[in-house]
Amino acid sequence: MSAVSMHISESVAVITVNNPPVNAISQAVRQGLMDAVAAANADERARRILLMCAGRTFMAGADVSEFGKPPLKPDLPDVVAALEASEKPVVAAIHGQALGGGLEIALGCHYRIALEGSRLGLPEVTLGLVPGAGGTQRLPRLLGAEKALDMITSGKPVKADKALELGLLDQVVKADLVTAALEFTQSVPAEVAEDRRLSTRTVETVEENLFDDWRKTKAKRQRGVQAVQACINAVEAGCTQPFEAGRQKEREMFLALRGSPQSMALQHIFFAERQAGKDPSLKDVETTAVQSVAVIGAGTMGTGIAMAFAQNGYDVILLELSAEALDRGMNRIRNLNAKSVQRGRMSASQSSQMLDRIRTTTNYSDLSDVDMVVEAVFEDLGVKTKVFAQLQEVCKPDAILASNTSYLDMNKLAETTERAENIVGMHFFSPANIMKLVEVVKTDYSSPSVLATTLKVLKSLGKVGVVSGVCHGFIGNRMYQCYQREAGLLLLEGASPAQIDSALYQFGMAMGPLSVLDMSGIDISYMMRKALSPEQYDTRAFTVHDRLVESDRKGQKTGAGFYRYEGGEGAGVNDPEVLELIESVAADLGFERREVSNEEIVQRCVLALVNEGAHILDEGIANSAADIDVVYVNGYGFPRHLGGPMHYANAMGLAKAADTIASFAEVHGDRWWSQSDTLKRAAEQGSWDAK
């Protein structure tokens, strides 16, 4: 079957793209469109042209199979230009998604209608690119500079009703797109009005300093992301230069960015997220239906988890030991919902529906029919064991029993039950209703069906599930302890908290490591370490941390930690008492303080992640280096445009990364800097996938 077909229906040339599953704009589609537009214009029976797509969506973007390969003619800009140059009016009928090149094709058409619920956007910036087929030139001519900048620099799609409001669409239809599209096409003038060709329009007056202001704002919010600034520059060219000159500048930027390190990193994490959760061992495993869920614990994590399920259509039972605790939890949910409504993230109706899906109880017997239980109680194996004993008594035999633990031994927990095959870890990240990442912990006993079903459920929540084996801290927290270890040692060696945080913030981390501890509570990691023996971690690195906790400096919640928090809110300020404590501990432990460079801070902390990640691969805790990157980008604030720590090492050169790690071992000892077989092999062969 041809990727593009054409037939005549009541003097309308109907061009249909059929390239399943998402009508990706492959070379066959591009050539087919060029040929079909030419044929439609040459056919005397046709007075107007309708462009549609078969299947579940309009064109959802480029063909990913062509990424990284030499370009094939015709180029997408030529296709868009051919549509726009058509002597007969072209109507794009959109359903599903019109993204990237799909929307650029629609912008080349003279009219655009869409089915209600459709999404339209230019997400190229999320792949480190600018739109490359005139999107930065046509969109500001249609919407104005500011609206175009918002869509292009965010990369976020808009729904059809919003697109209509913006002026991106001419009509939104509720049902039967084919009939509505034919009627609309027949209603438009048979001659193309000049202003329907967006390339001929002029941009509305642009406010003075608009582009400079956007550059400054985005530089703060999306630090170091080259594509964002390039998008602003391209839109500016579209607003200040003739169309062809602006389009040429856009294309030059697109080609320059296409092979850039940032674009390669962003493409890497894009594909890694698509592959996350696709455990090869689960390929043909059948899943079970999950419709009802229980959440145990109405604290911060439990309420967030309950919201995540309820927002996505699941019936939820929230259980606590007391009515008072339930009231506090439900009040928290109501307050968070109210804020979401206020900010336009959900409607009042959606909020009401979500709340209606949550019912509360203090009685375990009410959980007898649920399909899945997520326990989110205090992080203590004894406490969790008691919960699971209760669940075993009341839940139906095939119910999935999950624990939201961040570091406990899931094998031990499973062994306390008679349903070990039904037990799985689900490590949500806070706030659980917002954060995408969930580590799915596969025990030695978890059945393939339970694991596959859990991953499927998480996908339905819009989460990214990454499978982890059992170890202390799983993938993320195990590595993060190494990251924090180096930060703690650097404190003793001569760096200040502010220098460490600043160096890693400038590198691109969402927050510096010590600021993170202050925000989450230094006592949390303190309690985690108490579950370890001194042989399992470098006690020296956390001596300052322990002294702070023991003096009731636990972070923001106590008004002081590594920094002092005046008024209890806002950014922390440097505290001379902490600097004195650091110097005192350093002297006690025999450290000779010295000047530490920002480069050393970054390399020590980041390569500590890489080295531990390699050990995790060696042990089979993670399925791939890409999975580790997904964990760090989505759960720990690692800069997305650097692709995750394992990709960072790959871009650095795996041999160089291994040599640098070896040099750290020489200076600091190989107890914590020992190299795994995986790292040695990767360094020799230049790939994390080396066997």
Overall geometric form? globular
From the N-terminal CA to the C-terminal CA, the straight-line distance is: 40 Å
Instruction: Bin the helical content.
Output: 40-55%
What is the number of independent domains? 3
Strand order of the largest sheet: 12-11-10-13-14-15-16-17
Count of extended strands = 17
Describe the structure.
By secondary structure, the chain is α/β, with parallel strands linked by helices. It folds into three domains: 4-124 and 138-202, 2-enoyl-CoA Hydratase, Chain A, domain 1 (Alpha-Beta Complex); 280-468, Rossmann fold; 476-620 and 653-685, Orthogonal Bundle (N-(1-d-carboxylethyl)-l-norvaline Dehydrogenase, domain 2). The strands form three sheets. Strands 12-11-10-13-14-15-16-17 form an eight-stranded mixed beta sheet, with helices on both faces. Helix 16 (410-415) links the parallel strand 14 and strand 15 (423-428). Helix 5 (145-154) runs antiparallel to helix 9 (226-240), helix 8 runs antiparallel to helix 9 and helix 24 packs across helix 27. The radius of gyration is 28 Å and the shape is globular. The two termini are 40 Å apart. The model has no long low-confidence stretch (mean pLDDT 94).
In short, what is this structure?
The chain is an alpha/beta fold and 691 residues long. The protein folds into three domains: 4-124 and 138-202, 2-enoyl-CoA Hydratase, Chain A, domain 1 (Alpha-Beta Complex); 280-468, NAD(P)-binding Rossmann-like Domain (Rossmann fold), CATH 3.40.50; 476-620 and 653-685, N-(1-d-carboxylethyl)-l-norvaline Dehydrogenase, domain 2 (Orthogonal Bundle). Strands 12-11-10-13-14-15-16-17 form an eight-stranded mixed sheet, sandwiched between helices. It has a six-stranded mixed sheet with strand order 1-2-3-4-6-9, with helices on both faces. Strands 5-7-8 form a three-stranded mixed sheet.
